[in-house]
């Protein structure tokens, strides 16, 4: 009986337990299903329809993206909905899936916050929510997910601090937080993640402002991450030096810290301490010193990016020894090469069979280009070596680089001819040989480059005709052949290229013949420059077929006939320059419909008749040049004519009336009418005879006139990246006041990050085109900055001429951002923060800044051909980078001279510059000269020495800054006028002597007579000597 009772009890107990398990399982199933349904209900878009099957027709473990446990049936262990295009919020109820190990929601459109209760995922091992639109901060509760091995929250809109609690995730192997908008330091607690192999917090892409990135120093504690293989903290605002302990992470294969504000030097033993190093990315910082020679021993090295720093010395001669480098970027440094031995690195790079990109532009590389460049890998795609001092010639073997599609050697000193074999580079898309000393003819073989989009051969000594074979380059979009000695006619073949949508620039040559009627085929061309040639004949009426044209410059030729009224059909035309020709007839009435035209230059022709009154309706016009014609009658008074400084009508004796500032005689009504009738009778009676006679004389006279060659391009070269208004809108956060750096006479400057440049903070100067002279200032800056390259001149990355969101014209320049602002804020601080900073501006700092400015001016005056005059040297136009190196900026008033460095500018000018810095000769109608810049520099020196503005209220009744210094320099009271912040505490006599030396230089530069001033080269030599004296 007892065994039977026991059996019954066991059966009952088992049934009870089974019932309890069933109830628990059912309850768990309900919880899991409810959590999934709650997640589904928050989805607002499911374009692939994968959630339609999430219903009661099948068990939730069979729903798309859901994986359940075999060990624990009904328990969800993975939810994978990656790349389904979904949108909506992430329901907090999803955290009820307590057995979840993988949550993969990347590449969707989820928005809203990450659930604050995400810490309930105690078993979670993989979390990937990258490439969504999540915002808010990372919940600190994420640290409760102690089993986490992988976190990827990159490419979202997350803000706030990175939680220090993440340092508790001891099993974490990978942490990826790239491309968010954190405002955070890099937590030192991350140094506790002993299992971490990948740490990536790259803010370089997707952030509209560097305000939303990491800042502060790189923590020393990261050196504890012994298993780390990759660290990427690029594109942030990290400062200071890289902790030495990070260079001891022996397993590291990728070290990326580019585009920050880091400084210091690279350790000499870098290849020894980082034996597995493959990718070294430190570009866009302020590192100094040499590139370690030991880098040649890093046998695994594949990517080297040390660009945009201040590295000096030679490139390691055996840098290519390992043979694995495929990308090397050393551009924008101060690396040197002077002889054959300094170029040995090129030979070692021939060992790199996979080399694709070589960028050495904007350094101090000199000496002859080695022939070994032709022995580089057949895989090479891009070679950038512009902006150096490289001499010699392109080797004929360059034709062997079959996969090359970019060759940029602009701004060097190359000589000899272009090798004919260059036409064998069938994949070439960009060829830049501008601003060298290349001679000979343009090879006809260039016509074989069927993929070529950009051809830059300007500013050389090329001669002969333009090859008609260029018309075979069907993809050609940019053709720049200006400033050579080319002759012959404009080939009809290049006017039939349908891809030509950017520009044709043929200015400053000796081209002859008439402009072919085929020019009208260029329906997509935006800029056509043919100025400063010997073209004759008439402007073809077919030119109206260039419907996309924005800039047309035909000035300084011998073009005859009348101005075609059909030009008014080019609705987008902004600049029309037909000056210095032999045009006759009247100004077309149809010009009144050209609402978008900004500059119209018709001076030095034989135009007659009256100025059409309809030109008052040209609302976009900001500059009108009609001088030296035979125009007659009354000048209109409205529109552009209401601004006397915006028009020029000198040299038209028959004109009368207009604004009083134009100083023309009033128009007697009756006399005027009689003369008009008489002129009409003459015009009707003898039109043909007058035309032939007048044109013949004009042609003969014009042939004897001296011609001047000067660049008239207003756009940047194509190796400057092309950007849109939208790019700048995003880069500056919608031109928000938070990113506003300052305002000037012609516009505002914003800071921002421009993704296309892959660089750190840039300065965006937006021109206020409603201000008089703003458009011309933009043009002037473009013309200057496209050609100048110097470490002490602001670097222009690119320009933008477009239409803004309201349909208005938009012009902007993008510069390198100067983190320490202008010298003005240091000398004359306004805010409490500026006053605090200015305390550290010592005499040595000021002396170094003054030398930087002198070096920049010496380059403009002596190093540029033709010389350039800045015309507005003052503290506000001197910008300081994070190393307090000075950069001369704002070339809106700059002039390119036509003769020697002391030659006058082409035309007389109004007063150029700023009050207090303008040389006396400018005030009495003098012309822009290099001596004028020297005067402004002298005043600036005295201002830096005394801390007093030249326009200070104390200077009145004949007393000026210069006179104050001149009176005190020989007296015992001289130190009383020196800025107290510079005075040494121990009254060191050597520094006091230097004060006097600098003052004497300033006084000699600011002498009233321009002929008694020293040239800038002499000034620079003296300033360098003063600094050397202090060091010694």
From TrEMBL:
Cite a single GO MF annotation: ATP binding
What is the superkingdom listed in this entry's lineage? Eukaryota
> What compartments host this protein?
Cell membrane; Endoplasmic reticulum membrane
User: Gene3D superfamilies this protein is in?
Assistant: Phosphorylase Kinase, domain 1, Ribonuclease Inhibitor, Transferase(Phosphotransferase) domain 1
Q: What does the entry list under GO cellular component?
A: endoplasmic reticulum membrane; plasma membrane
Family annotation (InterPro entries): Kinase-like_dom_sf (IPR011009), Leu-rich_rpt (IPR001611), Leu-rich_rpt_typical-subtyp (IPR003591), LRR_dom_sf (IPR032675), LRR_N_plant-typ (IPR013210), LRR_R13L4/SHOC2-like (IPR055414), Plant_RL_S/T_kinase (IPR051716), Prot_kinase_dom (IPR000719)
Q: Which residues form the signal peptide?
A: 1-26
Q: Which residues bind ATP?
A: 765
**What PROSITE patterns does the entry give?**
PROTEIN_KINASE_ATP, PROTEIN_KINASE_DOM, PROTEIN_KINASE_ST
Q: Which residues form the Protein kinase domain?
A: 735-1027
Keywords, sorted A to Z: ATP-binding, Cell membrane, Glycoprotein, Kinase, Leucine-rich repeat, Membrane, Nucleotide-binding, Phosphoprotein, Receptor, Repeat, Serine/threonine-protein kinase, Signal, Transferase, Transmembrane, Transmembrane helix
Which Enzyme Commission number(s) are listed?
A: 2.7.11.1
SUPFAM superfamilies documented for this protein = L domain-like (SSF52058), Protein kinase-like (PK-like) (SSF56112)
One GO biological-process annotation of the entry reads: post-embryonic development
What kind of membrane protein is this, topologically?
Single-pass membrane protein
**Record field: transmembrane:** 678-702
Q: Which family does it belong to?
A: Belongs to the protein kinase superfamily. Ser/Thr protein kinase family.
In Swiss-Prot or TrEMBL terms, this protein is called Receptor kinase-like protein Xa21
- Organism source for this protein? Dioscorea cayennensis subsp. rotundata
């Amino acid at each position: 009986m007892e065994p039977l009772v026991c059996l019954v009890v066991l059966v009952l107990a088992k049934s009870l337990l089974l019932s309890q398990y069933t109830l628990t399982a059912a309850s768990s199933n309900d919880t899991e299903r409810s959590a999934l349904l709650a997640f589904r209900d928050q989805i607002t878009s499911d374009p692939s329809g994968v959630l339609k099957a999430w219903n009661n027709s099948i068990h939730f473990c069979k729903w798309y993206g859901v994986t359940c446990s075999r060990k624990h049936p009904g328990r969800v262990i993975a939810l994978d909905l990656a790349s389904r295009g979904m949108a909506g919020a992430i329901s907090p109820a999803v955290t009820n899936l307590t057995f979840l190990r993988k949550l993969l929601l990347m590449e969707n459109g989820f928005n809203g916050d990450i659930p604050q209760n995400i810490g309930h995922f105690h078993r979670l091992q993989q979390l990937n929510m990258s490439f969504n639109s999540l915002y808010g901060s990372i919940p600190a509760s994420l640290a409760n997910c102690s089993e986490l091995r992988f976190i990827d929250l990159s490419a979202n809109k997350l803000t706030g601090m990175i939680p220090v609690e993440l340092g508790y995730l001891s099993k974490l192997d990978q942490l990826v937080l790239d491309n968010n908008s954190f405002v955070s330091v890099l937590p030192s607690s991350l140094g506790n993640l002993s299992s971490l192999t990948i740490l990536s917090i790259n803010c370089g892409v997707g952030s509209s402002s560097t305000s939303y990135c990491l800042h502060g120093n790189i923590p020393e504690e990261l050196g504890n991450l012994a298993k780390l293989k990759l660290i990427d903290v690029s594109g942030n605002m990290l400062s200071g030096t890289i902790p030495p302990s990070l260079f001891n992470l022996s397993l590291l294969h990728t070290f990326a810290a580019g585009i920050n504000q880091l400084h210091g030097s690279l350790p000499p033993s870098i290849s020894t301490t980082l034996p597995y190093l493959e990718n070294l990315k430190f570009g866009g910082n302020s590192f100094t010193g040499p590139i370690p020679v030991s880098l040649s021993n890093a046998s695994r090295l594949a990517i080297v990016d040390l660009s945009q720093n201040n590295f000096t010395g030679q490139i390691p001669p055996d840098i290519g020894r390992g043979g694995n480098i495929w990308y090397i970027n050393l551009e924008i440094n101060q690396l040197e090469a002077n002889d054959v031995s300094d170029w040995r690195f090129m030979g070692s790079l021939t060992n790199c069979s996979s080399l694709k990109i070589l960028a050495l532009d904007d350094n101090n590389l000199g000496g002859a280009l080695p022939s070994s460049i032709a022995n580089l890998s057949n895989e090479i795609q891009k070679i950038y070596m512009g902006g150096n001092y490289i001499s010699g010639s392109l080797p004929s073997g360059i034709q062997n680089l079959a996969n090359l599609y970019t060759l940029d050697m602009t701004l060097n000193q190359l000589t000899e001819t272009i090798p004919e074999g260059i036409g064998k580079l069938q994949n070439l898309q960009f060829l830049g040989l501008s601003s060298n000393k290349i001679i000979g003819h343009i090879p006809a073989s260039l016509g074989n480059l069927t993929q070529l989009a950009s051809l830059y051969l300007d500013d050389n000594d090329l001669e002969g005709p333009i090859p008609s074979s260029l018309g075979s380059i069907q993809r050609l979009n940019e053709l720049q052949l200006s400033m050579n000695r080319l002759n012959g006619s404009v080939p009809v073949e290049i006017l039939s290229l349908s891809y030509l949508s950017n520009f044709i620039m043929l200015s400053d040559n000796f081209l002859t013949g008439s402009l072919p009627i085929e020019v009208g085929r260029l329906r997509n061309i935006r800029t056509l420059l043919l100025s400063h040639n010997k073209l004759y004949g008439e402007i073809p009426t077919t030119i109206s077929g260039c419907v996309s044209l924005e800039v047309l410059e035909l000035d300084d030729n011998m073009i005859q006939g009348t101005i075609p009224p059909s030009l008014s059909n080019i609705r987008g035309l902004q600049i029309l320059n037909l000056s210095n020709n032999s045009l006759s007839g009247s100004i077309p009435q149809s010009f009144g419909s050209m609402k978008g035209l900004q500059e119209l230059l018709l001076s030095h022709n034989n135009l007659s008749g009256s100025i059409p009154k309809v030109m008052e309706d040209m609302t976009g016009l900001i500059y009108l040049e009609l001088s030296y014609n035979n125009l007659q009658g009354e000048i209109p008074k409205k529109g552009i004519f209401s601004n006397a400084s915006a028009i020029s009508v000198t040299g038209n004796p028959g004109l009368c009336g207009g604004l009083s500032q134009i100083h023309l005689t009033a128009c007697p009504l009756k006399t005027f009418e009689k003369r008009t009738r008489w002129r009409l009778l003459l015009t009707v009676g003898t039109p043909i005879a007058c035309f032939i006679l007048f044109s013949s004389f004009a042609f003969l006279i014009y042939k004897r006139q001296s011609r001047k060659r000067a660049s008239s391009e207003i756009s940047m070269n194509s190796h400057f990246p092309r950007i849109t208004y939208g790019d700048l809108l995003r880069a500056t956060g919608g031109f928000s006041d938070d990113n506003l750096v300052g305002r000037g006479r012609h516009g505002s400057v914003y800071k921002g990050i421009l993704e296309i440049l892959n660089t750190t903070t840039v300065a965006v100067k937006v021109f206020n085109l409603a201000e008089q002279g703003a458009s011309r200032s933009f043009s002037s800056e473009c013309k200057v900055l496209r050609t100048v390259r110097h470490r002490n001149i602001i670097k222009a990355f690119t320009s933008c001429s477009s239409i803004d969101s309201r349909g208005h014209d938009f012009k902007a320049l993008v510069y390198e951002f100067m983190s320490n602002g202008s010298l003005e804020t240091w000398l004359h601080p306004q805010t409490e923060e500026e006053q605090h900073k200015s305390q550290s501006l010592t005499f040595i700092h000021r002396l170094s800044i003054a030398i930087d400015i002198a070096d920049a001016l010496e380059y403009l005056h002596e190093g540029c051909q033709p010389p350039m005059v800045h015309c507005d040297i003052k503290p506000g136009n001197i910008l300081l980078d994070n190393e307090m190196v000075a950069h001369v900026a704002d070339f809106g008033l700059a002039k390119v001279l036509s003769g020697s460095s002391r030659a006058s500018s082409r035309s007389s000018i109004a007063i150029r510059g700023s009050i207090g810095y303008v040389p006396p000769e400018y005030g009495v109608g003098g012309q822009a000269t290099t001596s004028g810049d020297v005067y402004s520099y002298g005043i600036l020196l005295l201002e830096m020495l005394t801390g007093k503005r030249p326009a200070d209220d104390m200077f009145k009744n004949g007393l000026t800054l210069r006179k104050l210094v001149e009176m005190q320099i020989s007296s015992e009271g001289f130190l009383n006028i020196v800025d107290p912040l510079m005075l040494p505490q121990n009254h060191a006599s050597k520094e006091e002597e230097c004060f006097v030396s600098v003052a004497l230089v300033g006084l000699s530069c600011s002498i009233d007579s321009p002929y008694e001033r020293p040239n800038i080269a002499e000034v620079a030599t003296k300033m360098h000597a003063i600094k050397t004296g202090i060091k010694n």
